[in-house]
Amino acid sequence: MSDFTSGFWNWYVALITVLSILGCGLLLWSQSKHKVRIGQDGQPEKTTGHVWDEDLTELNTPMPRWWMGLFWLTIVFAIGYLILYPGLGSYAGKLGWQSSGAYKAEVRQASLDYGPLFDKYLSQDIPTVARDPQAHEIGQRLFLNYCAQCHGSDARGNKGYPNLTDNDWLYGGDPSVIKETIMKGRHGQMPPMGAALGSDKDIESVAHYVRSLSGLTADPVKVAFGKPKFGACAACHGADGRGNPALGAPNLSDKVWLYGGSAETIMETIRKGRDNTMPAWGEFLGEGKTHVLAAYVWSLSNGAGAPVVTAAAATEEAAK
Amino acid sequence: MNAPEPVVKEAVIKMYAKREDIHPREVSGRYATWRWVCVWLTQALFYGLPWLNMNGRQAVLFDLGARKFHLFGLVLWPQDFIYLAGLLIICAYGLFLVTTVAGRVWCGYACPQTVYTEIFLWIERRIEGNRSARIRLDRQPWTAEKIGKRGAKHLAWGLVALWTGFTFVGYFSPVRQLGHEVLGFSLGAWEAFWVLFYAFATYGNAGWMREQVCKYMCPYARFQSAMFDRDTLIVSYDTARGEPRGAAKSQGKGDCIDCSMCVQVCPTGIDIRKGLQYECIGCAACIDACDSVMDKVGKPQGLIRYATENALAGGWSAAQIKRRLLRPRVIGYGLAFFAIAAAFSGALALRAPLKLDVIRDRGAMGREVEDGMIENVYRLQIMNTAEREHLYRIEVDGIASAGIADEDLVELAGATTRAVPVRVRIAPGKAGSGSHPIRFTVSALDEPALRVTEKAVFIVPK
């Protein structure tokens, strides 16, 4: 596919390239010889005839011939290069080289180099991998590279991005589910419920009822009004508000809030809905890396990470 | 009307010509000995250094793949590139200083181009004979003898060149392993390429290019003239004493007997009696040659000698030349040289084998956690550039009550780097909303002197 929006630029670039090469050749040819006067003795003069600053003359001290040869070689090289590689307008070159191809070749090489390591981990179950110190270190590097932008370097999340170190899971915290989440990504959607619930007052009542589910302070009158309205939410969050991991509907009865647990924030969530995407990493990372990554993430809430250096061991180390 | 223009005869000349071969005659003497001392010293160093081991590894190894540069007890990382810059600046000022005082002595005695040319010429002489024999051989038709001599020469050159290429690559890829690979014909494609490439460069430059490298390719050769002044030592022909030149027995002549030995020994093919020329690399081969001739004809040495323009014009003694050493140009270059060398050595001696980068998590400004504490997350990139493992403690200060909420000890194996996520917490009310400077300190538990501090900011949300 051409990178140009119009065919004109293709010819424009190609023409400039060809003319430049021809121009270089012409320059080399014209500058390899020079006309000089024949002196009194019948021999050509030793100077090139170029005089400046009144009396400075340029002597003709010939350069070695191979030097000129090198310049001609650059032209030969340029022509060869333009035949083999892309460079002449949108002509792709005989070798069909592409930067994306070079990238793919490097990725292929890396998979060959590191493939056996990840294959080894892939043959172990996730809790076993989580106990392997080397896998833990690899997992942490992968996490810092690909996950930390949203979930934070410490995996404790941000507003809208779940904390991965607690035991609260939107889609479930089983090792296999974590791996599936990373491989395929997730798309959690809560539709705007304002219209379904009714007036602003109704929305406020439901918000207070939701707060009461997790034992937060709430106006008992509003809670009583809100409770029957919660039926509209129960389809996803369950009648008791404990959520549904199959849909990724959060448990509303714990103290973990993805967007915040104040009455105002809950009302905003109800009015506008929420749309939350975790991209699928399976194709990009491959199953081997995802497996190690899942083990790292699982270990964060299951205390099975690499042996942490204890203060006692540290003192011992220092004493040595 | 204008007078008719005179007829000008013109001819077309070529601006490029075939290079004339130079066959320098072998020379011995004081300066030739010095050159051989330099050849032996530099080459013993170059060929020998890769074979030296220490700390269970090659003492000098530039591991490009792992981006670690081992220099005896030192491990340099790409972050230490400034030291290479410092070293190059020191070398540059060293060159400036030496050139101002003594001209192109680097070129004449220690430059690899000179050194390898000297080695290749030595081989050439052993196989093809001295200057006249080589000129004869050049003109000879391709007889069996010529083919044999030329073949032997190129074979010997090729072997030296291959060994040089092998040694060079041995600085970048462990030389002992490389040796095994060469012997087992299992050399990697890139290693083989670079061995052959440097072998070819050595063979081509020292065997074929020789003085052309200095005349047409070397940038130093051209800009060294900018450091010359009238008190710089140059290889000079004493015109007043030598001219008019002529046979030794003839009357009314100068000391130069016009034997042309100085021209025959010159590696760049010039006649030093025409005065200082840009081709002169200051090797003093002509001085050695002329001195031995002067001894034979019973005249004092030094018709060609290291002298300055001022000394030649004023007939100065060696002591007078020395007195001109302390001139502003020399003092300036000297001060710059020693200042940079001192700064470089100081920086290298004080260099802590520990590096720290602090990257604040940008995803969140700061969050409120249990008991109203404010928390910020950082990623600490800790590099242990020492060769053994260390246990480090991470500390933070700058805001009262600031503390690390995670494990504050981290262990790093020798010459490794690790990213450590760290949560910093402050108690509520200790800092107003906004950005506050804090400092991270990482120190080795077993070596208190080994510590680095890095600045960061702590953000308290509104």
Automatic annotation (TrEMBL), chain A:
Gene3D superfamilies: 6.10.280.130, Cytochrome c-like domain. Keywords: Cell inner membrane, Cell membrane, Electron transport, Heme, Hydrogen ion transport, Ion transport, Iron, Membrane, Metal-binding, Oxidoreductase, Repeat, Respiratory chain, Transmembrane, Transmembrane helix, Transport. Residues 134-214, 221-301 form the Cytochrome c domain. The chain crosses the membrane at residues 12-29, 66-85. Binds 2 heme C groups per subunit. Its cofactor is heme c. Belongs to the CcoP / FixP family. It comes from Massilia norwichensis. Pfam families: Cytochrome_CBB3 (PF13442), FixP_N (PF14715). This is Cbb3-type cytochrome c oxidase subunit. C-type cytochrome. Part of the cbb3-type cytochrome c oxidase complex.
From TrEMBL, chain B:
InterPro entries: 4Fe4S_Fe-S-bd (IPR017896), 4Fe4S_Fe_S_CS (IPR017900), Cyt_c_oxidase_cbb3_FixG (IPR014116), Electron_Trans/Redox (IPR051684), FixG_C (IPR032879), Ig-like_fold (IPR013783). Residues 246-275 form the 4Fe-4S ferredoxin-type domain. The keyword Ribonucleoprotein does not apply. Pfam families: Fer4_18, Fer4_5, FixG_C. SUPFAM superfamilies: 4Fe-4S ferredoxins. The chain crosses the membrane at residues 33-52, 81-102, 155-172, 192-209, 330-350. The keyword Metal-binding applies. Gene3D superfamilies: Immunoglobulins (2.60.40.10). Keywords: 4Fe-4S, Electron transport, Iron, Iron-sulfur, Membrane, Metal-binding, Transmembrane, Transmembrane helix, Transport. NCBIfam families: ccoG_rdxA_fixG. This is Cytochrome c oxidase accessory protein CcoG. It comes from Massilia norwichensis. The gene is ccoG.
